[in-house]
């Protein structure tokens, strides 16, 4: 879908430089500072920042187009930076006091996360003491804050899934990211020891999904913050998968158009198998984009109407993303399997796209085996399975 997107236009100007850094990004095992500087220069980090702090509050469709384009240049950079951006949406649902602490003096401040509820805590006056080795914190080297998950006992004797926001001065980063794919995302472990977290820095995940968090309604004129946090938090995963697939199609065409069979001299691009693979993957990638754009538009429509989605709609939003990722991986595999052995060499872009494509389907949110069950149960009128959420 063609839409006016000034931020995308500005972003496209810096993508060649980010693409040139792709190998360096993998070698560093984190996003280079120059990539972060380029993305901040065009203002991508302000996509979901409240306007009260100088943010843009662009729509999810506009943001998704930007992240897909960025992924075509460097998926590792897109993975880390998209999360740093989407966390702003989540932070805008916290109390104004915390938002002022984060953005009041530094509107460019960013937060990484480790939201799986593996943190440990002790109740103390005015808040909690937080401990944990919080893994999978993408882009943490470039963040000034962290959003971390834990289960907190409530008055009913059950546990609430909660988020705590902690400044970078209260944790250290364990440089333990050594991965086969998304090598440059810097998805490291945050080591947190007895960090004091006041109550205004804690929110329940359920409240942030139902319009009951402390920050709900702070921005009555916003078309962005009357929406649950999770679809925005996870929006980058499928956008990155799409961007990789779109770039893979271009690389495949470039490589195949100049390729000849080593033993026969036959031109590969005119061969029936190459034509069939090009055609089917093109259709699959176009279908993935159309399906994802439709879902993005629904997100934007609900937010603009200040309308929260029901369970049925949320199930579709969650699982649509995973299905798009599944389609994109299939399209990439179809092309890579026929692109030639030389493209397995580490200096070739195609092998990096192949590796990173599969990583996009490995996040808990894009696990299609889980998502197919979630949607199937909803369509059949069954209660959600808590083990799948």
From TrEMBL:
Annotated keywords: Oxidoreductase
UniProt KW Transcription keyword: no
Keyword flag Oxidoreductase: yes
EC id: 1.14.14.9
Pfam families named in the record: Acyl-CoA_dh_2
Uppermost EC category: oxidoreductase
Domain Acyl-CoA dehydrogenase C-terminal residues, every copy: 236-367
One BP annotation, GO: fatty acid beta-oxidation using acyl-CoA dehydrogenase
Gene Ontology cellular-component terms listed: cytoplasm
MF terms (GO), sorted A to Z: 4-hydroxyphenylacetate 3-monooxygenase activity; acyl-CoA dehydrogenase activity; flavin adenine dinucleotide binding
Listed NCBIfam families: HphnlacHdxOX (NF045920)
Protein name: p-hydroxyphenylacetate 3-hydroxylase, oxygenase component
């Amino acid at each position: 879908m063609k839409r006016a997107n000034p931020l995308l236009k500005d972003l496209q100007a810096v993508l060649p430089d980010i693409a040139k850094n792709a190998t360096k990004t993998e070698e560093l095992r984190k996003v280079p500072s120059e990539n972060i500087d380029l993305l901040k220069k065009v203002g991508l980090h302000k996509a979901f920042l409240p306007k009260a702090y100088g943010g843009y509050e662009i729509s999810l469709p506009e943001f998704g187009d930007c992240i897909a384009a960025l992924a075509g240049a460097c998926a590792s950079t897109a993975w880390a930076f998209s999360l740093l951006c989407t966390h702003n949406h989540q932070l805008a649902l916290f109390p104004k006091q915390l938002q002022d602490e984060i953005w009041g003096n530094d509107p460019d401040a960013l937060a990484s996360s480790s939201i799986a509820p593996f943190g440990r805590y002790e109740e103390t006056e005015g808040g909690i003491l937080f401990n944990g080795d919080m893994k999978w914190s993408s882009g943490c080297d470039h963040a000034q804050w962290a959003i971390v998950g834990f289960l907190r006992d409530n008055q009913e004797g059950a546990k609430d899934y909660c988020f705590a926001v902690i400044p970078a001065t209260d944790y250290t980063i364990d440089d333990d990211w050594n991965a086969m794919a998304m090598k440059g995302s810097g998805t490291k472990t945050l080591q947190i020891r007895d960090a004091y977290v006041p109550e205004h820095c804690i929110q329940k995940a359920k409240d942030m999904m139902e319009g009951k968090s402390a920050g709900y309604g702070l921005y009555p004129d916003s078309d962005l913050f009357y929406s649950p946090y999770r679809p925005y938090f996870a929006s980058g995963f499928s956008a990155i998968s799409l961007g990789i697939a779109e770039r893979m199609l271009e690389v495949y065409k470039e490589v195949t158009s100049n390729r000849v069979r080593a033993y026969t001299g036959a031109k590969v691009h005119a061969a029936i198998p190459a034509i069939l693979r090009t055609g089917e993957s093109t259709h699959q990638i176009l279908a993935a984009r159309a399906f994802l754009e439709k879902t993005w538009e629904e997100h934007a429509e609900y937010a603009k109407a200040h309308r929260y989605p029901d369970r049925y709609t949320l199930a579709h939003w969650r699982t649509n993303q995973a299905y798009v990722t599944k389609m994109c991986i299939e399209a990439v595999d179809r092309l890579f399997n026929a692109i030639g052995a030389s493209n397995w060499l580490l200096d070739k872009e195609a092998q990096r796209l192949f590796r990173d494509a599969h990583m996009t389907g490995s996040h808990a949110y894009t696990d299609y085996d889980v998502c197919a069950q979630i949607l199937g149960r909803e369509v059949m009128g069954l209660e959600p399975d808590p083990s799948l959420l």
